[in-house]
Amino acid sequence: MKKGQGLLxxxxxxGVMMTGLISVMSLVVSNLNxxxxxxxxxxxxxxxxxxxxxxxxxxxSNWLAGNDTWAGMDSTVAAVSGILPPPFESFxxxxxxxxxxxxxxxxxxxxxCAGIEQDANTPVAQEIIATVQWNLSGREKTITLTDILYxxx
Length: 153
What we know:
Layout: H1 7-65, H2 73-80, E1 82-83, E2 91-101, H3 102-105, E3 123-136, E4 139-150
Antiparallel strand pairs: 1-2, 2-3, 3-4
């Protein structure tokens, strides 16, 4: 009867343990990368939401002041778009605001436009598209949020 382990048995045991350790380490690295990607995606979504909220705030402030609902949208778009200040300098935000007429929102057979006293081509809504781009591990990432804001008057 042999006592102890042979060299071959020891090498096999070390190989099995190394395989297990490498598998665990690759899982940890993968989870850390996924966590970092989720965190940056969360920041990007919030930055896009912020841009839409700024446009909504401009519309609501104009309505409360009795001004034209869409006044000042160009300055809001200019202030929100571009490379962001620290700590968000790795993100680029673009905001697009386009007018929607009654016929764009409610197609022709819909009777909703008939009740509007204005011309059917008068803007009744603004389509807001907020796009945030960033670079993560050499890959370009993009988030796009779209909202439609209506004229309350």
